[in-house]
Amino acid sequence: MIGGAKLPRLRPYQCEAGRAIFDSVMNRRGLTFTVEIARQGGKNELSSQIELFLLLRHGHRDADAVKCAPTFRPQLRISMRRLWSRMGQAGLAGAARLSDNAITVGRARALFLSAEPGANVVGHTASILLEVDEAQDVDEEKFDREFRPMAATANATTVLYGTAWDDRTLLERAKQHNLELERRDGVRRHFEYDWQRVAAHVPAYAAYVEAERARLGATHPLFLTQYCLKTIAGGGRLFTAAQRAQLGGGHERLRQPAAGEMYVAGLDLAGGEDAPPDDGLSLVAGRSAGDVRDATVLTIGRLAYPAADALVQEPRVEIVEQYAWTGVPHETLLPQIVDLLRSAWKVARVAVDATGLGETAARLIAQALGAARVDAVKFTAASKSQLGFDLLASVNGGRLKMYRGDGSAESREFWRQCELARAAYRANSTLNFFVEAAEGHDDYLVSTALLVHASRDQQRRVATGRMRAG
């Protein structure tokens, strides 16, 4: 109870970390802590109550606590709203003041400063506490150069909060340093609570995470890092042998649609190599590994829906057909592609690579099929990362299946790219997937990722009508 009002009760694991932080602040120990709590496990609530307590304890003097995060909007804005809400719950809103980037109680302030690369933050002092939210996404060099010195004058306690990513992040390096110090002097500086520790106190959370595990797969990078708090290697193969085996399906390849089924498509457009092919053919059924030309690849998938009581309600996507064109200009291909999508397969939705030259092609396809049936995907680091994560989730969850091997050039090239595909895990919890240039292209792989994207939010078709009298 503070100020006659009850704040949300902290769970035992939050209290454990909170007590160590309070002790370091109040006794001026100047320790640096790392706190990893599974996603939605309460690290932000812990942080806000620490801030509230310390502002009350230091309101009689000029003192600053500083909190930084990878972005001001939305991350720090969310932190400010949470702290301001706790002020109101504690009956202190009338005694506190809110400004653009600070909350003040008496003469003490909590300052909220962006850790974005271009943010100008030099000159501030953290005399009470220095906090780093989502520390795994904060640039280590910027933190060391501009934020860490803020705690120097008062030997202030520093707390880095976040979840795991790879072994190169600011949070992971601070964690390893803390673990080494703990081995030397026995003083606990690292606090780690995975999803199972949280679930022991919140049954609803357990149900949510178990559903996420079913949807993403237990080996999905996001599940491993955000819920299990396990670091991942910075690079390697996108698919393991087990995942590739899981991707294989038992259904036959189709040359035309079957009545009553729903189809979607993914279209990866060649990167602008518009020279005619050497052999004069416009339709190329796959290509040799030594072909250096990028291809336009269209992948068709059939949707199969789970039972109504299934834990994961996303449809299964069965790849049923693939088309590849090498060295053909977009303007020459578009009429054929449109006809395949609109008339031959009658796709419910197609996701199109709309990057660069593909933007015009995607717009023309949308005009022909209708905007509601076309998702133009511009590749950025964030959008391609999402495609990669969704692709992995579909494979892990058994929701993406390739037609039974038929010995075709398309089938061989698809599996070759799946075997060669690499994953690079980058800052800000993003993923890049690709085939090394020396080994070929990733056009079949990208087309498949776009296919998975097109399948999302596709509702089950339900027959409608009226019974005829008699």
Task: Report on this structure.
The model is unreliable at 272-290 and 462-470 (pLDDT under 50). The protein is an alpha/beta fold and 470 residues long. The termini are far apart. The chain has helices spanning 12-26, 43-57, 72-89, 140-147, 170-185, 195-199, 203-216, 221-226, 241-247, 330-344, 358-369, 381-396, 409-420, 443-455, and strands at 32-37, 63-69, 96-98, 102-105, 108-114, 129-132, 157-162, 190-193, 235-237, 263-268, 295-304, 316-326, 349-353, 374-377, 400-401, 422-426, 430-434. The chain has 2 domains: 12-203, 3-Layer(aba) Sandwich (Rossmann fold); 233-455, 2-Layer Sandwich (Nucleotidyltransferase, domain 5). 43% of the residues are buried.
Low-pLDDT regions: 272-290, 462-470
The figure for the number of domains is: 2
CATH overall fold name of the largest domain: Nucleotidyltransferase, domain 5
| Biggest sheet features | 8 strands, mixed
CATH architecture of the largest domain: 2-Layer Sandwich
Mean pLDDT: 91
| Number of DSSP helical runs | 14
How much β-strand is present in the residues?
Answer: 15-25%
Going across the biggest sheet, name each strand in turn: 3-4-5-2-6-7-1-8
